[in-house]
């Protein structure tokens, strides 16, 4: 009954958005949002036959499908605006963000782009004055009532809100092949020690690389979850607010653990995308992969099923902690198609947009009123954990450090992958923090 009511109200919202969009001089529209509250939507008076350029790195493996699902909602609501999808391939935006940086440098911004909530947004784009504040849209859409309180400070500066979060992703997830584990008589490891024991047993049993890894950003991703496991949430968070020293013994211990974990990974990691590393687990060539929950979007897209094809747990040693990141979309300062970009952001922040996007993308909605019946088993567990766990930020995906600090850490990781020198690595991390100010 409740579900039917929500679906009906959702339909009303889309119809109202369509009606508003079709009217060339549309202004205020009062709609009933799912959940029953009234939302007054000031729909931008979008010129007929306009377009919006949206920039992301969602080009494959569940991610493109998720974006496509949200574009369907957008097209239904705004049939007169052409959606120009300027996605650039490459996991974690490694390529896309380089292209974006040169476009911003050349004063040629896309109307709206994907930017992670946290320091990537505030310490990079806001610091460079590249974004328009969106408080007016939050007021009009009533978003402060439905977006998590923990997220708003991460997308705000001096009272101005700078992006529209579309999801919450979890980075500290261990994915495993259940058949491989059962055949080897291994349980899903809960602690780092259990994990080392399992990895060693699999290696001794003849599996060359029990932990699948991909290109360098996935190494940083592994690093952040192992440091969390080794140090605990308070110390991990303390690394970013200056209360825990990078030359401390607990960092040394974390780096030792990380170095040890790397000995169980595949030698061709640098040549593999995150999806390739996930595929090694599905194939049974590797038993485990540590990756954000977009990996489940990929698993589902290639037809694998939870419990039989893959199982999951928090990265060993991190149960009760939710290492998070949030994809959000921004409005470029002087966006070439400002009104159309606002229309896009309206959909990105809507319940319909988020409930179309997230079940496919492999993330949970940023909004707190998502329709649970649309989400699979893993994502339901993520929703529950997000509500109860200790929340800490991701490094690789923009929450805890701005781009310049992160790039110094990335350089240090690159060198460490070559020389394996833990002391040198730690010294480089200390220097990275000093350079970041
Ligand atoms: C992250 C992003 C996710 C996913 C992942 C892999 O940075 O937040 O949505 O796209 O990269 O590409």
Overall radius of gyration: 22 Å
Terminal-residue CA separation: 55 Å
| Percent in helix | 40-55%
CATH class of the largest domain: Alpha Beta
**Structural class determined from secondary elements:** alpha/beta
Which band does the percent of strand residues land in?
A: 5-15%
**Poorly predicted tracts of residues:** 1-43
CATH T-level fold name of the largest domain: D-Maltodextrin-Binding Protein, domain 2
- What is the fourth-level CATH superfamily of the largest domain? Periplasmic binding protein-like II
What strand order characterises the main sheet? 4-3-5-15-8
Continuous helix count: 17
Bound molecules: beta-D-galactopyranose
Structural account:
With 437 residues, the chain is α/β, with parallel strands linked by helices. It folds into 2 domains: 3-167 and 326-382, 3-Layer(aba) Sandwich (D-Maltodextrin-Binding Protein, domain 2); 173-324 and 385-436, D-Maltodextrin-Binding Protein, domain 2. The chain contains 17 helices and 17 strands. The protein has helices spanning 2-22, 63-77, 94-105, 119-126, 135-141, 178-184, 192-204, 216-231, 233-241, 249-262, 274-283, 294-301, 338-348, 351-361, 377-388, 403-419, 422-436, and strands at 28-32, 38-42, 50-55, 81-85, 112-116, 156-157, 160-161, 164-165, 167-170, 173-176, 211-212, 288-290, 311-314, 321-325, 327-329, 364-365, 390-393. The strands form 5 sheets. Strands 4-3-5-15-8 form a 5-stranded mixed beta sheet, with helices on both faces. Strands 16-9-14-17 form a 4-stranded mixed beta sheet, with helices on both faces. It has a 4-stranded mixed beta sheet with strand order 11-12-10-13. Strand 1 and strand 2 form a beta hairpin. Helix 2 (63-77) runs antiparallel to helix 14 (351-361) and helix 16 packs antiparallel against helix 17 (422-436). The longest helix has 21 residues, at 2-22. Mean pLDDT is 91; it is low at 1-43. Beta-D-galactopyranose binds next to loops.
């Amino acid at each position: 009954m409740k579900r039917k009511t929500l679906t009906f109200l959702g339909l009303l919202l889309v119809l109202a958005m369509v009606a508003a969009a079709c009217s060339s001089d549309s202004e205020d529209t009062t709609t009933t949002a799912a959940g029953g509250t009234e939302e007054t939507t000031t729909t931008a008076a979008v010129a007929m036959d306009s377009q919006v350029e949206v920039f992301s790195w969602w080009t494959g493996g569940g991610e493109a499908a998720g974006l496509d699902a949200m574009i369907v909602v957008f097209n239904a609501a705004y049939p007169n605006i052409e959606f120009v999808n300027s996605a650039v391939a490459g996991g974690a935006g490694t390529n896309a963000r380089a292209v974006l940086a040169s476009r911003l440098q050349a004063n040629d911004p896309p109307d709206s782009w994907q930017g992670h909530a946290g320091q990537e947004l505030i310490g990079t784009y806001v610091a460079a004055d590249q974004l328009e504040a969106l408080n007016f849209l939050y007021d009009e859409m009533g978003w402060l009532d439905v977006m998590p309180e923990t997220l708003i400070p991460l997308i705000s500066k001096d009272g101005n809100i700078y992006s529209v979060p579309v999801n919450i992703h979890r980075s500290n997830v261990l994915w495993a092949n259940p058949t491989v584990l059962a055949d080897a008589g291994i349980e899903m490891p809960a602690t780092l020690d259990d994990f080392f024991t399992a990895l060693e047993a699999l290696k001794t049993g003849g599996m060359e690389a029990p932990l699948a890894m991909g290109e360098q950003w996935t190494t940083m991703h592994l690093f952040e979850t192992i440091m969390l496991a080794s140090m605990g949430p308070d110390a991990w968070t303390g690394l970013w607010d200056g209360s825990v020293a990078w030359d401390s013994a607990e960092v040394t211990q974390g780096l030792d653990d990380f170095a040890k974990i790397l000995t169980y990974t595949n030698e061709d990691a640098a040549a593999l995308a995150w999806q390739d590393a996930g595929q090694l687990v599905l194939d049974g060539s590797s038993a485990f992969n540590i990756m954000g929950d977009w990996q489940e979007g990929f698993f589902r897209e290639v037809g694998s099923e939870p419990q039989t094809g893959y199982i999951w747990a928090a990265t060993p040693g991190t149960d009760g902690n939710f290492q998070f990141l949030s994809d959000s979309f921004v409005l470029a300062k002087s966006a070439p198609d400002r009104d159309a970009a606002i229309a896009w952001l309206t959909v990105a922040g809507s319940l319909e947009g988020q409930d179309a996007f997230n079940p496919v993308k492999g993330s949970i909605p940023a909004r707190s009123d998502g329709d649970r019946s649309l989400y699979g088993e893993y994502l339901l567990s993520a929703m529950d954990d997000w509500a109860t766990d200790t929340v800490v930020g991701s490094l690789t995906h923009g929450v805890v450090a701005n781009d310049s600090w992160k790039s110094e850490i990335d350089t240090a990781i690159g060198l460490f992958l070559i020389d394996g020198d833990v002391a040198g690595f730690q010294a480089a991390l200390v220097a990275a923090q000093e350079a970041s100010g």
